[in-house]
């Protein structure tokens, strides 16, 4: 018996001959980064740690692919997730390729920079290397309806940016200082990961964002393309791409995305949905 019959299934033939196809585990990183409440999972290190571990531990994997579609969110979770990706890549000696879909902005771009290579669509929204904080002020509204604000603190900075009190210049200055620290951390990470690929453009770290095509010109990304075509061109037509996904939370599976076991959970889910929509809407065309 000097041959393997064509009637043998491909799987058995692979085992007998050792001719296994290339494999690239795929990890989708989709949604707002941070804790979003019990009814909707955001991207956090806690929710992704096990998935990332499993993807990087796949035997004989040629690389690991990240599929990113995120408008950002928590800078802390962005940094933690990116750090874990780099740690696992070095531990398992795996190259990481990020594929950006609709949006890889702000924290979403932070995640993309954890990859060794960034591939975007021509029309992806990429960049937004900055820090933003938004809130509402109700001090005039409560005066009109006759509500008196009663607030007592130990520590004169404890009522920082209270929405029911007039904005204080000292509070705004302190907020700017905190944002500046975060922005510096973000800039440093992008520079450390993208290196000399980055072009000298005054808007690069201004919070501006660009299309994928322009992002390649600026050095924020390496190429345009799509995951299936790119991996097939690189590893062959037989390349396998198993997907490692986040699981939906128990409450979401049990009650669906728009209902909850009680009013408190439903309200929390509604607020999270509104906050998520506001973050996404910054990048909708």
Keywords:
single chain, 285 residues, alpha/beta, seven-stranded mixed β-sheet, disordered N terminus
Give an account of the 3D structure.
The chain has helices at 10-17, 45-56, 75-91, 107-112, 139-144, 169-194, 212-218, 227-235, 250-255, 263-281; strands at 26-30, 64-70, 96-105, 117-120, 125-127, 209-211, 223-224. Strands 1, 2, 3, 4, 5, 6 and 7 form a seven-stranded mixed sheet that branches. The longest helix has 26 residues, at 169-194. The chain has ten helices and seven strands. Helix 3 links the parallel strand 2 (64-70) and strand 3 (96-105). With 285 residues, the protein is of the alpha/beta class. Mean pLDDT is 83; it is low at 1-10. It has one domain: 2-enoyl-CoA Hydratase, Chain A, domain 1. Helix 2 (45-56) runs parallel beside helix 3 (75-91).
Structural class: alpha/beta
Helix count? 10
Quantity of strands, as a count: 7
The CATH class turns out to be Alpha Beta
Order of helices and strands: HEHEHEHEEHHEHEHHH
What kind of sheet is the major sheet? 7 strands, mixed
For this structure, the CATH topology is 2-enoyl-CoA Hydratase, Chain A, domain 1
- How confident overall, as mean pLDDT? 83
Gap from first CA to last CA: 63 Å
Supply the number of structural domains. Answer: 1
Sheet-strand content, in percent, reads 5-15%
Provide the CATH superfamily.
2-enoyl-CoA Hydratase, Chain A, domain 1
**Cα Rg:** 23 Å
* CATH second-level architecture: Alpha-Beta Complex
Shape: elongated
The helix content, as a percent range, equals 40-55%
* Poorly predicted ranges: 1-10
């Amino acid at each position: 018996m000097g041959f393997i019959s064509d009637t043998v299934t491909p799987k058995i033939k692979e085992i007998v001959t050792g001719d296994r196809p290339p494999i690239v585990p795929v990890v989708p990183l989709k949604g707002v980064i941070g804790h979003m409440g019990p009814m909707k999972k955001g991207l956090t290190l806690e929710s992704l740690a096990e998935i990332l571990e499993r993807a990087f531990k796949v035997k004989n994997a040629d690389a690991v692919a990240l599929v990113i579609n995120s408008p950002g969110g928590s800078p802390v979770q962005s940094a933690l997730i990116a750090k874990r990706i780099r740690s696992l890549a070095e531990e398992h000696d795996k190259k990481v390729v990020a594929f950006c879909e609709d949006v890889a902005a702000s924290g979403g771009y932070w995640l993309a920079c954890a990859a060794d290579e960034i591939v975007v669509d021509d029309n992806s929204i990429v960049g937004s290397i900055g820090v933003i904080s938004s809130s509402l002020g109700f001090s005039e509204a409560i005066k009109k309806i006759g509500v008196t604000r009663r607030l007592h603190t130990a520590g004169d900075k404890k009522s920082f940016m209270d929405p029911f009190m007039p904005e204080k210049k000292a509070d705004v200055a302190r907020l700017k200082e905190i944002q500046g620290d975060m922005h510096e951390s973000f800039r440093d990470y992008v520079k450390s990961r993208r290196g000399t690929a980055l072009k000298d453009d005054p808007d690069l770290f201004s919070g501006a964002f660009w299309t994928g095509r322009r992002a390649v010109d600026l050095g924020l990304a390496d190429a345009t393309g799509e995951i299936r075509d790119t991996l097939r061109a690189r590893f062959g037509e037989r390349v396998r791409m198993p997907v490692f996904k986040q699981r939906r939370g128990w409450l979401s599976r049990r009650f669906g995305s728009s209902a909850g076991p009680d009013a408190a959970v439903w309200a929390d889910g509604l607020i999270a949905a509104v906050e998520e929509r506001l973050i996404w809407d910054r990048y909708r065309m």
